[in-house]
Amino acid sequence: MKASTCIKTGLAALCLLLSTTIVLSQPTGSTSSGLSVAKKGIWPNKTCSVCWENPTPGNATERQLVRQAIADTWEKFSAFRFTGWDACRRGQKGIRILIDPDAHPHVDALGTYIDGEEDGMVLNFDWEGCNRDRKECITWIAVHEFGHALGIAHEQNRGDAPQACNEENSQGTDGDWHLTPYDEFSVMNYCNPSWNNGGVLSPGDVAGIQKLYGANDFEDLGGQLTGEPVACSMYTGRLDVFSVGTDGAAYHKYYADGTWHDYQSLGGDFKLAPMLFGSALPLSTVSWGKNHLDVYGRGTDGAIYQKWWNEAKSQWEGWHNLGGQFKGAPVAVCWSPGRVDLFGIGMDDGLYHNYWDVNLNNQKWGGWEPLGGKFKLGYVSVVSQGPGKLDIVGIGMDDGMYHKAWNNGWTDWKPLGGKFSQAPSMVSAGDGFLDVFGIGTDKALYHKRFVNGNWSNGWEKLGGQSVNRPSAVSLGMEHCTVLVRGLDGGLYENRWNHESRRFDGFKRVGGVLTDAPFAVGEGVNIHVLMRAPKNELLHAGWRDPHPNPTLAKFRESMDVGSVKIQKRF
């Protein structure tokens, strides 16, 4: 049995193993698992902010090491998210970390009991007395202390821990809820044969934290985004995603042949676009046929730029300046192969339209035409019910929703009523069908339906709470799913139930997002792309579960081979 010495301060105890034999990994084949938590210390919304009491440029590297260690452990394997990581403000809630070179790392209490407490967590970045690599001391101990911040007690305190371990090392607050059996190899166990388990969560730690806060159902695609991603699918099994990086350039990542391909910079300068006029959508993308793909962006000069994939040359072409002066992001839509319609809100708040048709104008753009109206938020939603048809909705200066359509000519703008605080989202399940969604001034989601020439009376309140635009997707007749970012930052989904003829109600999918989600259909699947708190790109996808005979028939005609599915409801 290894000799050890434990320095006990509150919940902290740095156990320095004096033995020269140190086990760096747990035995293979171990099936033990366990975590013990303070039930009233559980964070209710699966998220909390983190701030530093005394950050300096001199400790920036160490602070980033801590942040990365937490991302690689507790956040990687659970739906919990730590946000912020900036300097603490007076009265700020969440986990407040003091960096103290003379203190032993500790937290003053478990979980929510340190919410907003000054110096609620203390970390040491110097550790002259640590008998390991300094980086290991900083990161491995941080993983342990953040386990406490999640509400997890010391594993050796449990009544089912070995008696010798419990008597020698028991300290701090005991947990009152044992999620799973005792775990010798937990990062929360002082009696672990590997000190802090090498900063790696044991299988028991993973099982316990997922039981407590849920699993991480999102696929981390990396990158550094400055606004919402956009995506489209050229065909079943293919997904193309575009975003703007911190350098202002557009970036492209795609899934094909069973794998995600690396990011590719497409150049351009769009870094100011997501910051102007509240628009978080700097780009728009559309496919106008198999292996035909366009991406559009509002440049820093206010003009719209186009880049397109040249299949014959297997390379990207552009950026081509389409001119104009616009406040927000462009919106591109295709009503049939070889046709693209492009929209943008001008500096006069009016809507403008441009088009490209492979069979018209010698394949040149038709030029910008004014469509009138006055719109807030720099963004409208546009869909096509079928060939030769377009529908547009936007938020007017009076916060009401307005609609305009093309069918062998433009209609006048028609008020749809309501009061909205965010840009709308609209989808079409087929010719003659529209579903429109908007976030009201009360932050709730509202819905209005168009069926065979008639709008539903009033706006249906679907509830929920959000301060970002919704994102809706339809896979075919009688199908509609809408997603929002909740006030807790999580992704929420609400589906149309064709049997009950109503929406099922919101269900939390998980995660923590920075902006609104972007939903897109691909074959029989739904994909959601999101920007996360560290500005990375997240992806979730699932196959629609409704036993809808109409949709089932639609599915039978599709190739079911598809993009990797991360979650299925």
Query: From the 3D coordinates, which CATH architecture of the largest domain would you assign?
Result: 6 Propeller
**How large a portion of the residues is in β-strands, by DSSP E?**
35-45%
Structural class determined from secondary elements: mainly beta
**Helix count, DSSP H or I runs of 4 or more residues:** 5
User: How is the largest sheet built, in terms of strand order?
Assistant: 5-4-6-8-7
**Residue windows where pLDDT falls under 50 for at least 5 positions:** 1-33, 273-279, 546-569
Number of strands: 40
* Total individual domains: 2
Rounded mean pLDDT is: 83
Largest sheet: 5 strands, mixed
- Per the CATH scheme, the topology name of the largest domain is Neuraminidase
Shape: elongated
Q: Superfamily at the CATH H level of the largest domain?
A: Fucose-specific lectin
Distance between the termini: 48 Å
CATH class of the largest domain: Mainly Beta
Radius of gyration, taken over Cα atoms and rounded to an integer in Å: 27 Å
Helix proportion range: under 10%
